[in-house]
Give the backbone structure.
Amino acid sequence: MTEKENLVRTINFERPDHIHMTFHINASCWNHYPQDALQDLMEDHPFLFPDFRRSEGTVKPELPPFLIAGNEYTDPWGCVWLTTMDGIQGTVIRHPLESWEKFDSYQPPDPDRFDHNGPIDWDKAKESIGPSISQHSIKNGEIGHNHTWLKLTDIRGYENAIYDMVDEEPRLWKLLGMLEDFNTGLLNNWLKTGAEWLTFSEDLGMQVGPMLSPALFKKYIKPSYQRLMGRAKEEGCIVHVHADGDIRDLKDDLLDCKIDIINIQDLVNGIEWIEKNLKGKICIELDIDRQEITFEGTPKEIDDLIRREVSTLGSREGGLMMIYGLYPGVPLENAKAVMDAMEKYAGYFS
């Protein structure tokens, strides 16, 4: 069974050969950990890194401007970003529409030339498998991390965006229309590249509860989600949604968008809650804890966590994928424990 066949069977609950596992090493890690130690781990875990080839010299990830520390970067929407660590996207320090006074002259970017972060070469995009970190076997595209709700907060600022919704600011609808038109343009261009999988990434939750109320999400954000994701589904694409944080109160509305896969964080939402509310209803891509157990726990506690998650949420029929993102600060022995457990339990139901 090829990796693509296994992935499709996982999504469709058609008895895959194994649980699809992704271990993603953030670019910032190459400046934080001893590079030989990272490469040793990758070499020792061929299931997770089947295409790994050891580098002879220093690994220097090619970083886009918005991932370079100390570099103020203006994205195509006019949002000014700044990060303090190479490889990790920072935060918006100046919002282009912090005041509505500039709205009459405000112009959205051109999706034929830009994505949400910067210039994009669509001819080159046709030649690559796509940007997804979750899989490298299906031709894919990404509408962008920060495409609707978060891009709105980038442009207006978080508090302003919430006030706009509560106050029913009429210009808000026009701005949301700009965002949806741009996202539709991106979607059309990804379809032209032959994408069969489209990722919609947007953090909607905080540590407790969502970043906006379910009522505001339903009124202002969900309709655009439904149109965009519905269009992708009509074109035969697998629709993958990533949403960090506590999104339990938004569960019904997200499922109503007819998505195929939901990437959801484990501990902040609760493993038993995920089992009760999502297992068997949709393919779960479980985002393994990066804040507690893998950060400051023991290797045994990490093994216990991943075994418990597989036992609780997995099934011989499929419907479970798992992903872990390594970032600076996690002890290397814990990173190894995550890799070991992901490889050990990938075949738990086979």
